[in-house]
Amino acid sequence: MTDAAPEPLAVKPKKRFTATRIGIGAVGIAIIVATFAFFLPKIANYRDVWGVIKELSWPWLVALAAATALNIVTFAPPWMVALPGLRFRPALAVTQASTALSIVTPGGAAVGIAGSYGMLRSLGFGGKPVGRAVTLTSLWNQFANLAYPIVAVFALAVTGAQTAFLATAAFVGAAILGVAIAALVLVLYSDQLASNIGDAAARGASWVLTKLHRRPVGWDGGSFERFRREAVDLLQRRWHLLTLSTLAGSLTVFVVLLVSLRALQVPSTQVSVIEAFAAWSLARLLGSIPLTPGGIGVVELSLTGTLVGFGGNNAGVVAAVLVYRFLTMVPTLVLGLISAGTWRRLRPAPETTGAGP
After folding, report:
1. What count of other Cβ atoms lies within 10 Å of the Cβ of residue 219?
2. By the number of CB atoms within 10 A of the CB, which of 24, 100, 122, 288 ranks highest?
3. Max CA separation in the chain (angstroms)
4. Is residue 353 part of a domain?
5. Domain contains 355
6. What is the pLDDT of residue 211?
7. What DSSP state is assigned to residue 39?
8. Is the pTM of this model over 0.90?
9. Which residue has the higher pLDDT, 171 or 10?
10. CA dist 95 → 79, 181, 200, 314, 347 (Å)
11. How far, CA to CA in Å, does 34 sit from each of 47, 193, 212, 221, 256?
12. Are 40 and 301 in contact (CB under 8 A)?
């Protein structure tokens, strides 16, 4: 009798965690269904939206294709900067495949990062350089996501426009960005600070995971200390290139949205470039919250509501948002599948694989 007593305790956390995952998945499905079956049709009838899309001219189709191609090719440069020796074709293949993973899987960002790490290791790069590259590209991308709403609020203030929700998001983003940058600077400043911050972060993360009935993290301050030693030299030489390539990679996504708006009858007299940027920056920040794969539903609803609020006509805005999301997701999904099937052929030459075990 006494031997059987511990069994419910061992099973209970797993059941709770499964229930939590099911609940999060149900919320995500509900958001997607509500967005496309209820909210968007309330904003604009899909027949009206299709009527706007059918009026696309050939010059605008070419412009949309060019903007999409530009966006795709800018995926690779941040990784080429963060992982010296990585060439364009393998970098593009890895980023397309990992981004496709992040779109189609719940909690996709973590899956995409794991995919990037595994593919780059299989291409012959060492574990330490790859881990450094994955960490730096992820950090710089999040820094950009947090910074864009701040820039947008200042730009709107200059033009006299105001949005309370965007201002709130910018305030929260500024606070998180400030803390994150300060933590990074402290980590890079000395081994001792890196170790202390890492230990504190590990304790905090383990506490949260314990509450979610997960195992504590397997890293500590030593991991931060090793990261500092590996990252300082590269950042001293390449931080500006990493920053510029990260900004280029994300801002070309905005270019796709802007071209979509203009192509689908939302002129600058209705939604200016600054207003479009503000809407996009807010949607990008909200879409990074892992409620649905690729932010599906969240991004569409946020973008549409904000753009219509700025003065865009309903049918044109919904059409532009749907085309924008199609062009920034479907080509990557297709290329990601192709890349996953062919990436082994892109193994770099031995002298370009980087150092490290």
Report:
1. 16
2. 100
3. 78
4. no
5. no
6. 66
7. I
8. no
9. 171
10. 8, 25, 32, 34, 15
11. 18, 47, 28, 44, 25
12. yes
